Each structure stands twice: as structure tokens, then as C-alpha cells.
Amino acid sequence: MKELASLNSIASSQSTPFSHNIVPRVLSFYHHWKKIYGSMFVVWFGATPRLTVSDPALIREIFVLKSEFFEKNESPPLLRKIEGDGLLSLKGEKWAHHRKIIQPTFHTENLKLMIPMMVKSMEEALRELSDKMSDLGKFEIDVPNWFRNIVEDVIANVTFGSSFEDGRAIFELQAQQLCHANEAYHKFFVPGYRFLPTEKNKKCWELEKEIRRSLLKLIDGRRSTTTQWTRDSCPNDLLEVMIKACVKGRSHPMITPNDIVEECKTIFFAGLHTTSNLLTWTTVLLAMYPQWQEQAREEVLRVCSSRDTPSKHDIPKLKTMGMILNESLRLYPPAVATIRRAKVDTQLGNLQIPLGTELLIPILAIHHDSTLWCHDMHEFNPARFAKGVAHAVKHPMAFMPFGFGARRCIGQNLALLQAKLAVAMILQRFTFELAPSYQHSPSVQMLLHPRHGAPIVFRKL
Q: Considering the entire predicted model, what is its pTM?
């Protein structure tokens, strides 16, 4: 572990040119040890062996063919407190019950009903940006924070619906909690430190209590209005869907108020940062490559014109936009790796995997593998997705920005829909380029993000 920390420290301290070959920086341990041992090797974390697997055929066994023999490993205690004890961390029958309850909220047809709300949030943000522009018609903004605020509005609406204002206030508390966690994430780990009554720990404990107290109060308030709900009251927000499941099974509930609290925390953490990171990296890439920015703008203006906001009928027609988002997710996936643990002794390919062995799948490295993506794997080339994912890569398991199999990210449709809508509306109104102060420094802070921010200069069309 000491060697791993040293490799990461050296890699992150080095400056990065405007290159998309980021594996040596972001997954430095994998890049270093692969050159020595090959693509499959074992790292010991204390007494736990962790096998690195990057062969798509073996990954298919882990996620699809033999998924019942592997489970998601537990997140570190600090991260689990932030992400909630919801779909991200649940296992077995309870995970399956929760997934079944929550899934309908994220069906494409239900999400399409929320497009007017997404448009409204985006229009307000773009109007504020336009008002800030100087007489020269340009304005510089650090887009990660800007996108987080926009996405937070949408996630709060999807989660809380008519209780949006109360839900937004709760999410703001969770955002404060996340800031404290991010600070701790980069500090030297001292076992048991999170239990010490330091000022920051006490603040985190108080935030956790306030978040739980506020969510339970909101849930009780919504439960008291169950008699007012009708079958055709659409779209269903996530809170309503979960409360209905709680009320239906009073004797043997499939989901409890405490479960609902944890799922709300999970949706905020996963939904907010996955979508805002996708929007950030896509904007950075389009700023780097003005020819693709113009090509995407031409498509948006052809499909939607310069004045009409994109509708649910327009979104599927934005083919170039879909290619750009896929290429952004390939080069800069939100999660750079994922881990599974063997539940029993099992066989994986020609290997015997003992019970308890952890399997690390280096998503970022697979997305940058020349044997799977050809010689231009480090180049921004959305055209590779012109005929879909199946024709872009040599194995379908080599593209997995949202995971794969039964545990594929439940919010994938929401993230892609919101990203398409947001970028399309920006392209209708502005051109943009990297600010002179931009430093290309991809870094992992729970998810892949620009370490020094992403300042972008916007100009009115």
C-alpha cells in the first residue's frame, strides 16, 4: 500500500500537457505494474489479495455470466456515510427489492415528462450567464461548480417533486458534508480518526443528524398526503414512488423510512457528481476541439433552430451529440475503476479465484487500450461512435462508463438526457473556449474531476 501511495503521489504532482493519455497520472499503479507484470497482477491490501482484470471476456464473466458468484465490495466508512446505504452499497435480496421499486422513476418515458423542468433550470442558468457578460460579450466561469448547481436542481426535482424546495435545502446540507469528506479524503489516514471529537468531525456528525432529521420529517409529511395521490398523477418523483412502496407493504414493507433516507442520499451523491462531471469534461473537450463544437452546433440548430428549446422529440435526433458524449465518457469516465469480491471459491477463465479475493476492473485503462480501440485510443474522435458502440470497439465489455450487468448505473438515462439537453442549449446561445488559466489536471477525488477546475470563456453567438 505504501508503494501504491508513493506512485499516486508522484504522478499527481507532475504537470500534465494537453493530452488525453491520462492513465499514467490517474491509474499510476496500474500503468507502472502492468509494464512489469502484464495486465493481470495481484496487489495485497493488508491480508486481502486484489487481482487486476482488464480482459473484456473475463469482465463479462464477472458482470454477466457468473455475476451471482461476485458482489460489490464495501466502500470505505467515510465514503459510505456520504453516498448513503442505498443501491450503490446494498447487496442480495434487499438490493433487488430496492432496484425494482426505484427503476420506474428512471425509465426513459418518465424522464421525458421531466424535460420541461430541466429546460427551465437550464434557461435560468443561461440567462444569469448572459446577464454577467461584459460589453465585449464574453464571460469566464469555472464550469464544474456551475454545472453542479444546475444538476442539483434537476436531481432535487426528480427525487422530491412537489417537495422540491425542502429537498433542495437537504441536498445543500449534504453538499456541505461532502466538502468535509473531500478534505479528509486527501489527508493521511489515521485509523479511528473519524471517531475523535475534533471540530470538523463534530460538524460532520451534526450535518448527518440534520440531514436524517429533515428527510424523515419530509417523508412523514408526504406520507400524510397518500390519500390525495391518484394513479395518473405523473410524473412520479422518486420520493413518492418509495413512499407508496412503504405504505403498500405496511405489514411487511419492502422499504422503510430509514431506507428511503439512505436512497435519497445515494441518488444525490451518485446523480449529482456523475452528471456534472460528464458535463464538465464534455465542455472542456468541445472547447479544445472547436471543429466538433461547430459540428454539434450545426446539428442542434438544424434540429431545434436557434430559438426553440429542445423537446422530447428532438433529443433522440441529436446523433452527433450522442457520439460526443460517448467519446467524453470513454476518455474521462466518472469512475476510473470498480471492484468486485468473490463470494465463493470460483473459476474465472483458467484461474481459480478463492473466496474473498477482490477483483479490480480498471475502467479507465480499458477505455484507453490500443488492442481494443486501435491506434487513436488517446485521441478525441467522436466519429468512432458513428455506428454505435458495437462498431466502435472490438469487444462490447470494453466500454462501461456506467458499469455493466444487473448493477449498471440506474441513473444512466437521466445523466445522458440532461447532458444532451444542457449542451444543446449552451450551443444554441454561446461559443466557448478554454480560459488561458486552464490547467489540464485530471485527478481522482472519489470520481474523476479536473483538479484545478475548468475555467471556460463563453461568448454570445
A: 0.89
SS3 of the chain: the string is CHHHHHHHHHHHHCCCCCCCCCHHHHCHHHHHHHHHHCCCCEEEECCEEEEECCCHHHHHHHHHHCHHHEEECCCCHHHHHHHCCCCCCCCHHHHHHHHHHHHHHHCHHHHHCCHHHHHHHHHHHHHHHHHHCCCCCEEEEEHHHHHHHHHHHHHHHHHHHHHHHHHHHHHHHHHHHHHHHHHHHCCCCCCCHHHCCCHHHHHHHHHHHHHHHHHHHHHHHHHCCHHHCCCCCCCCCHHHHHHHHHHHCCCCCCCCHHHHHHHHHHHHHHHHHHHHHHHHHHHHHHHHCHHHHHHHHHHHHHHHCCCCCCCCCCHHHCHHHHHHHHHHHHHCCCCCCEEEEECCCEEECCEEECCCCEEEECHHHHHCCHHHHCCCCCCCCHHHHCCCHHHHCCCHHHCCECECHHHCCCCHHHHHHHHHHHHHHHHHHEEEEECCCCCCCEEEECEEEECCCCEEEEEEC
How would you write the pLDDT of the chain (461 residues) with one tens digit per residue? 555 555 555 555 565 667 999 999 999 989 889 999 998 999 888 888 999 999 999 999 999 999 999 998 877 666 777 778 888 888 888 898 899 889 888 888 888 888 998 998 899 999 999 888 877 788 999 999 999 989 988 888 888 876 777 777 887 887 777 776 666 555 545 555 556 667 777 777 888 888 888 888 888 887 776 555 444 444 568 888 888 887 665 555 568 888 888 888 888 888 888 999 999 999 999 999 999 999 999 999 999 877 788 899 999 999 999 999 999 999 999 999 999 999 999 999 999 999 999 999 999 999 999 999 988 999 999 999 999 999 999 998 999 999 988 888 999 999 999 999 999 999 999 999 999 999 999 998 778 999 999 999 999 98
The structural domains of the chain, ordered by start, are: 1-72+336-376 (3.30.43.20), 73-335+401-460 (1.10.630.10)
204 marked as binding residue? no
Residue 173, Cβ density class (10 Å: 0-12 exposed, 13-18 middle, ≥19 buried):
middle
Residue 365's closest CA among 16, 98, 26, 2? 26
| Spatial CA neighbour of 378 closest among 332, 335, 416 | 332
